[in-house]
Amino acid sequence: MGKKSKKNSAAKKKRISKHVLRSKEQETAATSTTATSAAEPQSQSSSGKKKKQKEAHIKDPSEAANYLILWKTSKQSWKFNKNTQSWLIRHMYEADKVPKATFSLLLEYLLGAEGNTRDRIRTEAARRARRYKEYSNRSTDLGDDMETKTEASNTVDNEERKESAKTTVTEKPKEGAKDGTSKELSPGDDEEARWRKLDEHDKRKEYKRARKVLDLLKV
User: Fold this and answer.
1) Dmax over Cα atoms in the chain, in whole Å?
2) At residue 75, does pLDDT exceed 70?
3) pLDDT grade, residue 173 (50/70/90)?
4) HSE toward the beta carbon, residue 4, CA cutoff 13 A
5) In contact, 90 and 190? CB cutoff 8 Å
6) Helix, strand, coil percentages, rounded to 5, for the chain
7) In this predicted structure, what is the pLDDT of residue 218?
8) DSSP sequence for 100-154
9) Torsion angle of alpha carbons 171, 214, 216, 197, nearest 10°?
10) Are 116 and 182 contacting, i.e. CB atoms less than 8 angstroms apart?
């Protein structure tokens, strides 16, 4: 009897041990599943934010045009929008995004630019004008008339010297109502690639826009 009792007791302990182990395994699996489920929404939320941030940089050209029209016609209801201003300045030389009528309004708008923003816009315009002049001088079969070439050669040199002198002196940026466009005005590889793809007509159009900006923002 004593031996049977011990055997039964040992069998019961084994069954209990198996039951406990099975319960622990189920708890571990449940915890792992819960953690995975909790992580998925976070991942989706993170990717959603990145997507929204990327889309924030894409603006409808008509929206930017309406921003300037409202500024021109109804200043009381118009509100300054830094993102829209940055977009306009960044794409002001692209006729497909900033058409001629919008560009004309933008020139009026830029008269209010002050301090560091004004300096950077002028520096970028001088860079684009200089780029076209160098391109024009390198080309032997552009079909340009001598008047345009002479203008590109003579009028940009003074602006280049002024802007080069400014960049060699470290100045404290001035405060302005429409300041804060340093990132938007920095040329990149994409912009250079876009310019190389332009035909002669569009390259000259960009040069003319740059000249208008330089004339507008003379010191």
Assistant:
1) 122
2) yes
3) very low
4) 1
5) no
6) 75, 0, 25
7) 84
8) HHHHHHHHHHHTT--HHHHHHHHHHHHHHHHHHHHHHHH-S-----HHHHHHHHH
9) -120
10) yes
Which residue in the block uniquely carries the two structure tokens 């300045």?
Answer: 89
Rounded CA separation 84/56 (Å):
10
| Residue 96 C-alpha from the chain's centroid | 17
What does the pLDDT look like over 29-59, one tens digit per residue? 665 555 555 545 554 555 555 555 544 467 8
**Integer Cα distance of 51 and 21 in angstroms:** 45
The residue whose two tokens read 């190389």 is 196
As a whole number of angstroms, the distance between CA 59 and CA 52 comes to 13
Cα distance between residue 85 and residue 87, in whole Å:
5
Is the entire prediction scored with pTM above 0.85? no
CB 89, CB 123: distance < 8 Å: no
Return the axis-axis angle of helices 100-110 and 82-91, rounded to nearest 10°: 120
Predicted confidence (pLDDT) at residue 107 exceeds the cutoff of 70: yes
Whole-angstrom distance, CA of residue 197 vs CA of residue 30:
58
